[in-house]
Design brief:
This protein is α/β, with parallel strands linked by helices. The protein is built from two helices and 13 strands. The longest helix is centred in the C-terminal third of the chain and has 19 residues.
Length: about 160
């Protein structure tokens, strides 16, 4: 089984008022939560959300536990919560990979026998489609870019 871990944004005003009450990966961008989008493209099961201490008590049905950041042993994905993936799953190499969107690392593929500790040495860059979320206002921007395709996919299913 492959695990999926979420890396919440650093402290700052960009995610106010959400930053005080819920993880960013639990926000809806388009028809899906950011967490659900990552689960879809990674085909992994959410294991934990790495967030600031004041969110450690956050509990909601279907949400993985919120805890301190720690090393992640593969096979696993580590995904930034401030990125909403779209489209098909990326083609992964056998070794470690940095998932990149427009030149910015938005996640990591941690194969078995490898450990993520904030970086992955020797990681190959793999492009992933989606929308960067720079703050709470980008929840609306993401909706504009992703909702039509989400609804079309949902209707097809």
């Amino acid at each position: 089984m492959t695990d999926l871990f979420f890396l919440e944004p650093d402290e700052g005003d960009a995610w106010y008022p959400f930053v005080d009450c819920r993880p960013v990966c639990e926000l809806r961008v388009g028809a899906w939560l950011v967490r659900e989008r990552w689960e879809g493209v990674s085909r992994a099961e959410s294991a934990a959300i790495f967030a600031r201490r004041h969110l450690h008590g956050f509990v909601e049905d279907g949400t993985p536990p919120v805890r301190e950041r720690s090393p992640v042993a593969g096979p696993a994905f580590v995904a930034r919560s401030d990125f909403a993936p779209s489209g098909a799953a990326p083609t992964l190499p056998k070794g470690p990979a940095s998932l990149v969107n427009d030149g910015v690392v938005v996640g990591w593929w941690v194969p078995e026998g490898t450990t993520w500790n904030g970086e992955l040495s020797g990681a190959q860059e793999v492009e992933i489609e989606g929308v960067a979320l720079l703050g709470a206002w980008d929840v609306i921007t993401g909706m504009e870019h992703l909702l039509a395709a989400d609804v079309a996919d949902f209707t097809h299913e």
